Amino acid sequence: xxxxSINLTxxxxxxxxxxxxxxxSTAGLNGTTIIHCKNGILTETNSTVNLTSCIVTTNVWPVYxxxxxxxxxxxxxDFTGNTVxxxxxxxxxxxxxxxxxxxxxxxxxxxxxxxxxxxxxxIGSQNILKFRYPTTFDIRGTLTADAAIGQNIFFxxxxxxxxxxxxxxxxxxxxxxxxxxxxxxxxxxxxDASVMRRCK
Length: 200
What we know:
Shape: globular
Strand content: 35-45%
């Protein structure tokens, strides 16, 4: 789809997705605006959504990962102005390789996450990953979090408004503190080739 807009103003159900990328599907959006949806874009495992210079705004969530779909972002894409300016990750593991492209809003792992043995997660430079109490980020496979020189990748609590804004959408009623989430954990079976470089 080139240009145009997807507008679900007045949607009445919880299934108001601007783009629903079912397993095995591919969608390409170029210069498209998605507004007034519950989820601007919903991805399932083995789906692909390619975004070029798109605006995803005035939705509840700009992107909702119900599975480890492939999302590519090119040009200048705007994911702000939503109820929560974050990519909601609503699955807890994946197989194969899953890449989190660099985005100007955080990735929100509501249920924590496990990179399974034999699987890989690649995190784009400058990304912010937020986790909810009392979750963990468990690495049993391979983690590649290699920020470019002069940049960082951030791992923090959903209560931390300093990085990526008010992801838990509670204003100033909570603040980040030690123990808000339980960190990144590696195990005996974790791949020794895992990299965390210039991460905070």
